[in-house]
Amino acid sequence: MKSTRQIGFAFLAVTAACATVAFGQKVGHKAPTAADWTALAKLPDFTGVWEVGLGGGRAGGRGASAAKGRGAPGAAPVGRAGGRGPGRAGPSLTPEYAAKAQATQAARAEEASLTANCLPPGLPGIMGQPYPMEFLLTPGQVTIVIEAYNQIRHIYTDGRPLPEDPDPTFYGTSVGHWEGDTLVAETVGFEDIARGLTFPYSDKMKIVERFRLTAPNTMSIETTIVDPEALTTPYSMGTRTLTRHRNWTIAEYICEENNRNYVDANGKAGVKLANPNAAAR
Q: How much is the pTM?
């Protein structure tokens, strides 16, 4: 008869072998070749730091300290995704989700509460934050480093399909492909959290983004929401314009540091204007 220790070791060995197989199936990406890098050089140049066009802009260059004094970390984002532009109709909801939309005010209050406590807005809200974002292109992937909340998005362009049963996350799983000079990104698998949308959504929601250069240092992003359970037709959120600043760098953004936002007993977010680091008078 085998000892308990022997049986335990055998079980661990089998578990490790299974985990290795599962991990290998998950990762399994080939190393980029010289041809992959050559092909990448032929794509549109998205690299660099981009700023969401909100009007006014920032004067001059930016250093690492530029992030300080840019407004309260948890404050409601300016130019957030989900707003309706002039003359653009709102989303056409199915009867079930039209009824759910009656709780919109409560959802917005919850969103303010979450951001006041330093939880970042999900996609598409994070792409409308008034903070810069850096695009990095490597073979098979576009990485977006977003200064707000120190967030990072990965758009996989290596030919993989969208996951059939994705793990729900703040930003979902993004898979992209190139249509000429346009990067088309499809994202699925969202946690049910506040994300800058003005209507309720289901776990079938898909966000489609189209990134394209309209000038050497200007990028347009068209965002469309597709949700067969919540929407009768796809909902276009319109086009956002980004401006590139090649001399900028992404600053560190730690929401909890000197956070002056709070949530009162009724769940309403507010801002403490007093500087917590100011010397006592």
A: 0.75
**Per-residue pLDDT at 169:** 94
- Counted domains in the chain: 1
Here the CATH number for the domain that contains residue 186 is 2.40.128.20
Please tell me the distance from the alpha carbon of residue 220 to that of residue 243, in angstroms, as a whole number: 9
Count of all residues that appear for the chain in the document: 281
- Residues 65 and 15: their CA atoms lie apart, in Å, by 48
Please work out, in degrees rounded to the nearest 5, the angle formed at the alpha carbon of residue 207 by the alpha carbons of 23 and 119: 75
Task: Look at residue 187 and give its three-state secondary structure.
Answer: strand
207 within some domain:
yes
DSSP H helical ranges for 158-254: none
Tell me phi and psi for residue 3, to 5 degrees: -75, 160
State residue 73's pLDDT score.
37
- Which parts of the chain have pLDDT scores under 50? 4, 7, 9-25, 27, 55-86, 281
Judge whether 59 and 212 are in contact, CB under 8 Å.
no
Let me know how many helices (H) and strands (E) the chain has, helices first.
4, 11
Cα 278 → chain centroid:
34
Domain that includes residue 50, residue range:
34-264
SS3 label, residue 28: coil
**What residue type is 12 in one-letter code?**
L
